[in-house]
Amino acid sequence: MNRTLLAAAVTGVVLGATTAGAQAAMQLPQVKWFGFAQITAQAGKAKVGNTKSSLKFGADRIRIGFKLKQDHVFGKLQVDFNKADGKSNILPNIIKDAVAGYKINHAAKISLGMFKTPVGMDFNVSGKALEITKRGMEKGLVLERSAGVMLSGRKILGGFGYDAGIFNPTTRSSAVSGGTPGSDNAWAIRAMYDTRGPVRAHAEVSYGTSQSAGTAPDLRDYKVWDVAARAASGPLSARAEWISGNGVLGQDRHERVWYVGAGYKFRALRPMQAVVRFYDGHSRKNGASSDLQNTYLGLNVWLAHSKYNGRLQVNYVIASGDKKTWSGVSGGKSSGGYTENVFLVQYQVAF
Fold first, then answer.
1. Cis geometry, peptide bond prior to residue 198 (ω within 30 degrees of 0)
2. Cα–Cα distance for residue pair 245/56, rounded to 1 Å
């Protein structure tokens, strides 16, 4: 991507936004607060190195935030009290999103601040709306959140959309540990298409890179491709995703993950959804390769007849493949893919 062209595009958007804003009628700000807590229980070793199977309690996310909108101006702040208050990309890790933006129309919206980079379909699903209790093995290969600027558009020529942005190095990613803001940057672009009707479908392809992704002497750029699709019709849903990363942690290291999954909604005593998802990961590091598979068998139950509040998720994860020699970062810094079978429970309350 040409930096000069991107800078010119952003400048044009800002100038256009200023003119449109001067002509718009004044409206009062609309503020919407939200929050959710995900309390968890886990049984089993889950990882190599755990001395024995045990029952462990914890939390995945404890978040609160708000969204703001006035005329064409929008913003968002979201914090997660379950994150250590360490520094990452200038802002503390407790700050998940800090966004200020301006929407000209459906085809041009500019966002500035800290937010998710546009690589990865399931990664860009809200944590309170996931079909399984954890983000899967592909999570470790996305660029994650970072501080930057992004231009977006939706519903172009019916169903096309795009995102294109430049960011600080994406050091919140498990695949990136280095890069200096001001000297190095990350870039990401995504194209997508959505359909509406009896069958709701979505397809997307994205590419991203983060410069100097490791620490000396591992200063290769990290480059990642992602292709994904999902569809839903009535009670049935399906999704699939493939992601491939080169230069993991700035090294001569390659990883790829793909998954397929399906869900079926039904009603027993409460609204429920049965879910199955299969992950396959491959890692090549220092000339050695390893493979890991995780199969999720799940049941989601909505106890409060609400989309998010009172949701109970139960998963059993079956690990297979090179469980003792798996070397991948896939799954994220908090997971890494399960190398032992594990039983997972999550209960979510939200407003």
1. no
2. 32
Cα distance between residue 125 and residue 291, in whole Å: 26
- 3-state SS class at 23: helix
Give the SS3 label for residue 12: helix
Per-residue pLDDT reduced to its tens digit, 94-141 = 999 999 999 999 999 999 999 999 999 999 999 999 999 999 999 999
Sign (positive/negative) of CA torsion 319, 322, 324, 327? Answer: negative
The mean per-residue pLDDT over the stretch 199-215 comes to 97
Q: How confident is the model at residue 4 (pLDDT cuts 50, 70, 90)?
A: very low
Distances (CA, A) of 16 to 150, 204, 240, 283: 16, 28, 38, 46
Residue written as tokens 């890692």? 283
Task: For residue 109, give both structure tokens.
Answer: 């919206």
In whole angstroms, what is the distance from residue 127 CA to residue 302 CA?
16
Q: Which residues pair with 56 in a beta bridge?
A: 42
Poorest-confidence range of 80-89, 146-155, 293-302? 80-89
Q: E strand or H helix at 271, and its extent?
A: strand 271-285
